[in-house]
């Protein structure tokens, strides 16, 4: 008896419904990219530092909540 | 597949059958969003079924097992819908995949080895551009020819396998001004570009569009909230998100997300448009909020069902159609899916509304139980998620009606 006599080809069936673990793979991978930046940079400081550096007297439209 | 034979010549990609089918689909889309023709939809859907039955062996076997064939099927409702999970286990393409222009590999969240495979040939790419272009114009940019767009995705050059990156590049070229740009690079989020663009918009008064991954926006909002930073974007600025309110960056309900759009960016809720997009279904499903708001229509948030698609909600056990308002699994029929399968059975939970449908969560088959973690991170709002948690232990069916009633009474207060 060959291996193929035991092997059954997989088939699409209704048992697959409710078994798709994927939520949104694009978002999962984008989140992974973002997490990388958080790990690599001193992210906790960088947002505020970026804002302070970019905000100038001519560009004061943004409100910085106290 | 171990053994693969060439598709019958009459259904080949360069056949008259496929060319006429594509022409009919494009003509249907080109008639616009106000046009609908049940008879023509039925005719095209059945022709697609014939094509896909003859060119996709695993689908043919599935249909045969269900006792449905193109010769026997007379209505689009009879076309067997492929479970979305099957895209991970089988190649479901109606053409030889080496001719694909789009090839995405959607990966599982817990098992990266199980990859979904999405293929589209060049003619099918034209169909998806036509369909989603029309929808993006109507539901995201009904009032602006072009505007500056910040994309919360990597560029397609950086991530050619991410469907969202490829799709949004089309949005950028079709609706964006030349200064539109991608916010995600190999180094992660380009904070400098993001903050500078937000400050520029505040200073110049030129509205800005932010489009992309929901978790990406949540990531940014949470960083802003932590550092007590907010912006006041000009009126007409908008945010369009897709991907679900998942838990990568902490819990966030739909309501909290809209609240943050307002608190952090100054964008009002009607200008927050959520999109349901899936690799397995070519057409995107947009919230109607902005179009309704600009047209002065009072309507609760729901997803639009474009005329070249049909969406049904089916029972999780029997897969029979449920009446409007009752929660079940979303099943989509999409004429733009010519290169794959026209009917897809998703694991998304939702309910039909008067003018469309709403997505509220995700079904995970675990003997009659819904996974609570999945639900918290899903599309459903805080109120909806709590109700699902509660009701699933009792009766799932009446949730949609209950939600409509509660939101109506809340809006009256």
The oligomeric state is heterodimer
Q: Total number of helical segments of chain B? A: 13
Strand content of chain B: 15-25%
Dominant shape of chain A = rod-shaped
Q: Span between N and C termini of chain A?
A: 78 Å
Low-confidence stretches of chain A: 60-66
Instruction: Give the overall shape of chain B, derived from the CA principal axes.
Output: globular
Question: Tell me about the biggest sheet of chain B?
Answer: 6 strands, mixed
Termini Cα gap of chain B: 59 Å
**Poorly predicted ranges of chain B:** 108-112, 368-400
Q: From the alpha-carbon coordinates, what is the Rg of chain A to the nearest angstrom?
A: 26 Å
- Specify the helix fraction band of chain B: 25-40%
Describe this structure in words.
The complex is a heterodimer of chains A (66) and B (413). With 66 residues, chain A is mainly alpha-helical. Helix content of chain A is 48%, strand content 0%. The model of chain A is unreliable at 60-66 (pLDDT under 50). Chain B contains 13 helices and 16 strands. The radius of gyration of chain B is 21 Å and the shape is globular. With 413 residues, chain B is of the alpha/beta class. Chain B starts with 15 loop residues before the first helix and ends with a helix. At the A-B interface, helix 2 and helix 3 of A face helix 3, strand 1, helix 4, helix 6 and strand 7 of B.
